[in-house]
């Protein structure tokens, strides 16, 4: 089937259906939306998986006791083991056909590549279906804002798949911070050793036959069409700008989560980045991004002054404070450090193995704040996933609902904007309300490197000219495009 025929599938009917659904559910409270009449409270939820070959299969498995009624993936070979696991579920390749034709779906679990998160999530929400969406929530800042507002409008239950946000250690660290045990925190540092896949690469040029089981047109979705190559699918798509969000998008929603939650960061007012070579096709091998957050409203036991937060990936690490004991652990695989005027807290992802140091010694802080924990899941279930399921069936607000996850994800993917625009050699000033960088002039130029694919047939001493060239773009136009992508190939939000 041609690209044109696929992307134009029932578009008028589909959009009409979703528009009718919006009108129908806008006046219904969220607890009444649950199940759309298919699932009464405390009964089983009818769930569809979209993008099931990788993380999606884990999420579905972590929702035991529910009805998995539909499975959708563009690559049926990659998804075959999941089809075998749920033999009664209907199989689909195109989520639009699934949502239009299969009427018994209450909720969807979406774990597609980043660039195709928003389209199925929005379509499902517009039909009144609850949405569990993998991290990063979206590919762009604008998409995050769109889903946040759509969740509020439709009243469906939502959850971002940063599963560790339901761990007890998230709330333990927040209690330490919000009890004032560290004093005023003006610097925070977060790091990861990722990427563990290839980045900083030119696009492959070798033509490879598309596997019979893969619908490459549907994989490309709203991105620019390009020839299939196993460098893009499966999983390794994460490092390519058109499909993924690099190490920051992969790990940021994990490692930045506790600093964001505990410090109630909100939107930054400025950000900047430096990195290894930036190219037109893929994220750099390593990067450092610094965000500036304004002072927030003080908490009862804790002031929230202006704070700088710095992200490091590709093996980069923050400097160790000199007064830390030599055995204070800073796991190079990933972690964070909150530097307070009284003490320093160091932890791993989602606050695991957190420790507090004061005057060069480890201490046990006394907390004054008690935050509610996420309930344990039934045996075999994931706490984060089952929290979502229970809220769908019985009412309630998941821990990482889009009200929280949307603004948080804006900050995460905004870091890639700084990485891609660093040739401007300036701190970017951010107007969050209008999703706009305010200090780029209309005629300003942005420089990026285009790498020449390696060929063993080329032998030259002029390596610099042979391997790369400089591409110049209008900085303002590119910035706007990266904040709000132009969907290609006929795709659009209804």
What does the secondary structure layout of this molecule look like, with pairings?
Elements: H1 3-7, H2 11-25, H3 30-33, E1 46-50, H4 55-61, E2 67-72, H5 80-85, E3 90-92, H6 95-101, E4 107-110, H7 118-126, E5 130-133, H8 141-154, E6 158-160, H9 168-178, E7 185-192, H10 216-220, H11 246-255, H12 257-263, E8 270-275, E9 287-293, E10 307-313, E11 334-340, E12 344-347, E13 355-358, E14 361-363, H13 383-394, H14 402-420, E15 428-431, E16 436-437, E17 445-451, H15 463-467, E18 468-474, H16 475-483
Helix pairs in contact: 7-8, 8-14, 9-12, 11-14
Return the structural class.
Answer: alpha/beta
Number of strands: 18
Please outline the major beta sheet: 10 strands, mixed
Q: Please give the order of strands in the largest beta sheet.
A: 14-13-12-11-7-10-9-8-15-16
Q: In percent, how much strand structure appears in the residues?
A: 15-25%
User: In the CATH hierarchy, what is the architecture of the domain at 3-165 and 378-398 at level 2?
Assistant: 3-Layer(aba) Sandwich
Relevant CATH superfamily of the domain at 3-165 and 378-398? NAD(P)-binding Rossmann-like Domain
Question: And the CATH topology of the domain at 3-165 and 378-398?
Answer: Rossmann fold
N-to-C terminal Cα separation, in Å?
23 Å
Specify the number of helices: 16
Averaging pLDDT over every residue, what do you get?
90
As a percent range, the share of helical residues equals: 25-40%
Name of the level-1 CATH class of the domain at 3-165 and 378-398: Alpha Beta
Shape annotation:
globular
CA radius of gyration is: 23 Å
